[in-house]
Amino acid sequence: MVRHYTGDGGMEAHIATALARGYDGVTVEGVKATAEEVRKAKTAGLKIQLWTPHFRDELRPVVDKDPDFIHTDNIHAKKALNIAN
What we know:
The protein is about 40% helix and about 20% strand.
């Protein structure tokens, strides 16, 4: 079982809550998370999922933040950017 934390508050709060609860990672909105926040979560030993980049102009910056997972429902944007897997 994989347990990810998502909720209100900033990334620091997400990281602290996930670690305190023994979760595997955090899930946050991709356009709001910074690359530094993604690095902090990974450094803390957590997996990071960024969600809901719908359009090409939103998806590329989310990919560039280097999360472990990206949740999107726009497969066409992914294909247009030539993003593998």
